[in-house]
Amino acid sequence: MTLSVEEIRQAPKALLHDHLDGGLRPQTIVELADEIGHELPTNDPVDLGHWFQAAADSGSLERYLETFAHTVAVMQTKESLRRVARECAQDLADDGVVYAEVRFAPELHTEQGLSLDEVVQAVLDGFEEGAHNSAAAGRRIRIGALVTAMRHAARSMEIAELSVRFRDKGVVGFDIAGAEAGFPPTRHLDAFEYLQRENSRFTIHAGEAFGLPSIWQAIQWCGAHRLGHGVRIVDDITLDDDGVPQLGRLAAYVRDTRLPLELCPSSNLQTGAADSIEQHPIGMLAKLRFRVTVNTDNRLMSATSVSREMALLSSAFGFGWADLRWLTINAMKSSFIRFDERLAIIDDVIKPAYAKLIDPA
Questions:
Q1: Is the pTM of this model over 0.70?
Q2: Pick the catalytic residue: 208, 278, 309, 341?
Q3: Is 208 a catalytic site residue?
């Protein structure tokens, strides 16, 4: 059974790994760039969308990250941040996403004088507006923010304090992102220790472009509650002579402790972490019952949505409604909101909808 994007769009979904500056509408980029005089590769929205995808299809994480120069450039005012966040919430709701955690790096949006607090507040205001507009149209979404520190910079403690300051106002957690090679998560150990003392939740980009040492440090040194990507955990899984998977110590630890993996299939192909959807490690990891979740990473650069990612997996691995329900519940269980709110979304929204899809009678 292969499910289409349109079919999957009708099902409730949860999203844990989505970058605000990687999900702009091309039309919005063109309009915002025109307002500030920023030069784009093209001013045609359709061609611009194609340019972003092509530029990201390089197989290099570093080249992939270069595309953000244009999106970040047009997100330097309260108004632009609020608009991008509002449209993000509405686009996700239109795709059937009922819960989302969207991340952004406040330190990247201060070039025109905004304070870190002003950046965060503008984004939260946009999310609230987008969720309100979507609810009025009959599509409810609960959306929270993850504030991200850049791993090559030295502001992680400042951003961690920012996340705690806003954690009761719409920020649900903290993250570090950026090129992994040469910038291990342990460079930000003081920020993670601070967050642990403050009983705050955090995820760490690890195991995408870099291998097992990045994952090991994120978990055992920094105490990550989730792994952003984590796809390279398969490097610690080998097949014996009979083709039976054998888990190494780290892979076994990740599975045994139910540490969530924020897998982003299309993005992983673009950054060279996998060669094709059919060969993506998510198939093996799902069979081995790791805590697998399906995410978009950057919807603009990958020209994707949660529904499209799930449709690709349905085609590649035969995932049906029961599998998509499992993946969606995995994501909700792994979210950074309170337990009772997680449970309400699972029991009142996700399970009833999938029950009808699995057994229409």
A1: yes
A2: 208
A3: yes
